[in-house]
Amino acid sequence: MAKHTPSDPSEAPSAGLFLRNVILKALLLLVILNLGFAKIDPLQELGQISLYNGLFPGRLRLPFGEDFEESYNISILQLDAMFASHKISAGSKPEDEFRVLLLGDSSVWGFLLGPDQTLSAAFNAKGYMTANDKRLRFYNLGYPTMSVLKDLLLLDFAQRYKPDLVLWFITLESLPAQKQLASPLVQYNLEPVQILINRFHLGLDPNDERFVHRTFWKQTLVGQRRQLADLLRLQLLGVMWAATGIDHDVPSSYEPPQVEISDDVTFQDFQPGELSTEDLAFDVLEAGNILMEEIPVVIINVPILLASGENNPIRYNSYYPRWAYDEYRDMLGVEAAERGWTYLDLWDAVPSQMFTDSAIHYSPKGVEQVVGRLRETILRVANQVP
Amino acid sequence: MGLIPILVFLSLSILIGLLARGKWRSWAILVVSVLSLYWLQPAIPIRHLDFWLPTLSLGLTVLVWQMIGSKNAERNRREDGITFAMIGALVFALGLTRYLGKGTFLAPTRPPNPGSIAFALLLLASLSLLITKLREKGLSLANIGAGLVLVCFILLKSQPLAEAVSRGLRVLSGQSSDLASASELQWLGFSYIAFRLLHTLRDHALDRLPPLTLREYLCYVLFFPALPAGPIDRAERFQRDLHSPASLTAKVGLEGGTRIVVGVFKKFVLADSLAYFALNAANASRVCSTAWLWIMLYAYGFRLYLDFSGYTDVAIGSGLLMGLRLPENFHQPYLKPNIAAFWNSWHITLAQWFRAYFFNPLTRTLRTAKVKLPAAAIILIGQISTMALIGLWHGIAWNFLLWGLWHGLGLFLHNRWVDMQRSHPRWFPQRLMEGHPLQVLSVFFTFHFVLLGWIPFVIPDVGQGMRLFLRLFGA
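YS: structure for the whole thing
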């Protein structure tokens, strides 16, 4: 074992010099790496590199998770990486496939449901075929935040996957104009969102202060370290996804949605009678329809829990006072008719015992109810597509 | 230990290596080690326990040092007194930070009031004096010291006992005992501190320990880079390095720096990445196929090695920067052709400790006992009991015992195999035995033996571990 003694007298004085050189070179390397990284800005390209759909099976829903140790999933806000991990990115679209995209919030993503229990999985299990022998394949592009602008962003990105039909599940909570920019997914994807706002003249501020701006500092290696770590984590969690088929931790018990609700008549900041068409982002729904051009879009008002408590005459559930929800349904019906949307109102399609922890989360039985109610419309619309 | 403490340690090690000379180096190491003891201690919900546990580590070290005494104690009395006063002042000063704003304490939470700290320091001084008096009367206190350390160890490592202690401490501090849990007693580095204390107590009893000043002893037991994860150095070797006229040179700086960088890469890049899919009790039951189960077991095996050896690299690198060469703890353990070679290269300092203080004395006693046992029986008893104890060191639980027995049995079978080779050389031609294919097969077999042994190590429920074991083979 070498002893720690200054055997060479000339060696000792050089230690300080050596240390200085190490520090200077390290600093120089750090600066070059950071400047180079900021200049090249390879995050988008890195996001497209994925072990999913290769080494691991593609995920059945977009990555989202709050506790990766239990759910083997993380929330990631980069669209390239999100879609690269999804099954929809597995190769080119087969000739015999009729591709159906499902958009929406946590009710579509399947909160408190396994990946094989979601709406898209239940549709796929039915094995629907079109009249010209194409198999309908449903892809879950739901994401658990309430904003139809977030859906439009995902739809815009998903165009490259050549959908044949879009099922857009909405509810009043995801429509208020003031909420559209509140989704982190929207805030993080400034450029594509700004393009959408400007292209479709949406009633939203493209320079809203909630957007995350990518300054030069944020584009450096140090500035992007969290995003890079998340990209790596998503790949590493692919092992557990492949090994277990779990992408969401479903606890054995949870708090059921409130049946006894308050007598509060306000909806967000709105008092009875204050809600108008301008307050809701119908223009975003219209933009989705225009964006898809010839591809049919079916807008579905999702089922909600009809709580049976004492304040049932005042509120439907903890989300909605009756006046607001009824007005919303009326407005949506009128808008759909005037703009020529294909629209289905399923607001009361699921019995209250088929909800899990909230007024818009269904149990597997609830999912079956929705699937049953949509079958006819989907097949009819699908068969109209040339 | 996270990246920030490592960066701080790196900077401090460089500063000590560059600036501190002679005895000032040990003073600097002592101060940083004492402060690190409090800084690295995890926060504990039981009121002030995260201050008292590091204080107890310090106190226990001082008391054991008093118990082992030293032949030239008289000569060093003044210096030892200064050391004692200095650590007392340091602890007291740490306690005074309770009056500064939140976030300024070095301890993980607000320290207790100065009155109780002063009382604890007075108690320590009184106990020290009492031990000195008793020692001067010719009483050997080494066994009492060893017993005290072992009791602390057992209380910590046994889940029901640790829970009972937690409950008691909660009652004492006026907190709800309903929330008591064994996991609350996170005593930073105590396992390694205990080994160092026991080693010096035993060597003192055998008159093999060189005289150590309090400063040297505290530096040895609480040496800050080796606090969280070892290695377990020997006091006489550590003392030699401490006295060497070392200064940081470019060559040593490069070697130490490289070790730290390699260690950080092993721990924070490789091991932490493997942690995402390494086998654990929660994910084991969720796996769909045997192939993935094997992959997760491999991930666990490599994660454990990279994590542990990464920390060791950081400790050795930091030591080098200060002129102290800590012993190696790992040497390519997964590339060894037999289980004995594995244990000579995995957690080397722990294995050496048990060999020196348990296995060798035990087998010596058995060999010289009145009732003559066959050599194989002595080896069996020695290997099994040593490995069982190593298992129990990780925690007093059935799964760790099983892990120890697995390795004990492996070592015994290997010993018999080697014995058979020696007694029947014709059956085992040297060319065949030393041939490349057989060596590769041996490495493969040994690695998988160790790998399967990790199942009881990582799965606390023995039944679940057994089922998992069978699942790996398709059952």
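YS: worth flagging: Confidence is low (pLDDT under 50) at residues 1-7, 9-13 of chain A.
IM: good catch. Also Chain A has one domain: 39-384.
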